[in-house]
Amino acid sequence: MGGSMGSTVGDKITHLIEYATNQLLPLILVCASRGARMQEGSLSLMQMAKISSALYDYQTNKKLFYLSILTSPTTGRVTTSFGMLGDIIIAEPNTYIAFADKRVIERTLKKAIPEGSQAAEYLFQKGLFDSIVPHSLLKGVLSKLFQFHNFFSLTEK
Question: Where is the CoA carboxyltransferase N-terminal domain (predicted)?
Fold first, then answer.
């Protein structure tokens, strides 16, 4: 439904993280969602906490490597949960990234927000994530990141 995250999606992502944790595997999640499915009410909202909790165990207790890739759109609970929790966060160019839609923010604040303030390029300048990588270069960048990760993992032992 509109690319939103419901409880089934939350379960699948949580199981994936738990599998990666148990197998000591690096993790890449590609985010493309309009947020949580409000029709499911609190069940949908709890996915954020469930996924974040699984990632906490993965990153903090097991010290494993999680890379988040933000594609367009990445909004709502997906942004605030697993989208922004990566050890490294990459966005594709011109990606729409936000917690809430522009009209919702403007209606809540009762003032206009700057045009383009929810674009990857603007948010990168503000330090929200690590890099903007075009899709055509993503494979090479990911390969280098995992080589660096493996090198530093071996030198720490």
Answer: 1-157
Q: Which residues of the chain have pLDDT under 50?
A: 1
Global pTM exceeds 0.90: no
Amino acid letter, 95 = T
Which tens digits make up the pLDDT trace of 141-152? 999 998 888 777
Residue 29: which residues within 8 A CB-CB, separation 6 or more? 13, 16, 66, 67, 68, 69, 82, 86
For domain 4-156, give the fold.
2-enoyl-CoA Hydratase; Chain A, domain 1 (3.90.226)
Compute the distance between CA of residue 125 and CA of residue 127 in angstroms, rounded to an integer. 5
Q: Where on the phi/psi map is residue 66: left (φ > 0), alpha (ψ -120 to 50), or beta?
A: beta
